[in-house]
Write a structure and sequence with these properties.
This protein is of the alpha/beta class. Helices cover 47% and strands 12% of the residues. The model has no long low-confidence stretch (mean pLDDT 95).
Length: 338
């Protein structure tokens, strides 16, 4: 029977869904749920990762340091994970996080920029932590380029490489093709992080396993950016039926999901029309909230905004381009109406 390592970014990707305003109490409540259910790893912190709380990316309600201290004092069985984007997070930020008890470091880059992860991966390894490489917006690279970038992360010593469907654009055959290419090239575990814009998050996660992946991400009730992630309790139920081992107690997880929906999740993610357009346009799911807010403020169609962001191939970290696109659409429509 094959074992699948589950990493749960509910308290990280879910942060996007509430504009990074998760409270200390909400985090504490979910940590208790995760620990009781036996979830191996939970990621915590700002949606864009360590050190991302800022005016540009959105300010967190609770500081990174407070979150790590809370997790260290609460979790007994579940490891603490963080998402780290070099440039957003410095080595000093990483040092502080590790000093406060973080166990697992996932160092992420845009899918064509693995070079930037070297120093952070090596630092985490030197400190005796688990370190993974993460290739975000993986649909924006060819399969050949994706495997080359994964090879770089392997050469840095990463314990595994996770590819992210950051825009929720993949169909199952896309995932199988990419994961097979990676597992056929690198000799460390491959993982997959799904978003649900086109309703394929669970199917794509299963497809990743078919391609040879052994690490999957999932969030409770799918709580995450945009249309959300693979719904964790559904994912575990499906994996159980398929005969995979996760060592997660499904009964406790289902019970915890009911509690989380009432106490943590402001709004259970759904696939609305805007989410579908975002997925088709291949736009980072974390842009959903700022696009919705700015489109409403300037009375422009958010679908037009997503399509233009997709045409320009805008990626996370370029949040300032959202307002530029919104202004341009608003001005062009004003000219036409006059």
């Amino acid at each position: 029977m094959s074992t699948v390592l589950i990493s749960d970014p509910t308290l990280r990707d879910g942060s996007h869904a509430v504009r990074h305003q998760l409270t200390r109490e909400q985090m504490y409540n979910y940590m208790l749920i995760a620990d009781a259910a036996g979830i191996p790893i939970i990621e915590v912190g700002h949606g864009n990762g360590l050190g991302a709380s800022s005016l540009q990316l959105g300010e967190s309600l609770v500081r990174d340091e407070e979150i790590f201290e809370l997790a260290s004092s609460t979790l007994r069985h579940t490891k603490i994970g963080i998402h780290v984007i070099p440039g957003v997070a410095t080595i000093n930020d990483l040092k502080a996080a590790l000093d406060l008890g973080v166990h697992v470091v996932r160092v992420a880059s845009h899918c064509t920029e693995a070079d930037i992860t070297k120093r952070h991966i090596e630092y985490a390894l030197d400190r005796g932590r688990e370190a993974y490489g993460v290739l975000m917006m993986s649909h924006m690279a060819s399969i050949e380029l994706l495997t080359q970038e994964a090879l770089k992360m392997q050469s840095y010593g990463a314990h595994g490489v996770i590819i992210m469907d950051s825009a929720g654009v993949y169909l199952p055959e896309d995932v199988i093709e990419r994961v097979k290419a990676l597992t056929g090239t690198i000799n460390i575990p491959v993982g997959f992080h799904a978003h649900n814009n086109l309703g394929h998050a669970i199917a794509n996660s299963v497809a990743a396993l078919s391609g040879g992946a052994r690490i999957l991400d999932g969030t409770i009730r799918g709580f995450g950016a945009g249309a959300g992630n693979a719904q964790l309790e559904v994912l575990i139920a499906v994996l159980n039926r398929l005969g995979y081992t996760t060592n997660i107690d499904l009964s406790k997880l289902l019970e915890g999901a009911n509690i989380a929906e009432k106490t943590i999740i402001e709004k259970v993610p759904t696939i609305n029309s805007t989410s579908v357009i975002s997925g088709l346009a291949g736009v980072f799911s974390g842009f959903a909230k700022p696009v919705e807010l700015l489109s409403q403020k300037y009375n422009v169609d958010p679908h037009k905004v997503f399509m233009e962001l997709g045409r320009r191939k805008i990626i996370a970290g370029q949040e300032d381009m959202i307002i530029e696109v919104v202004h341009e659409i608003a001005e062009s429509e004003a000219v036409v109406s006059n």
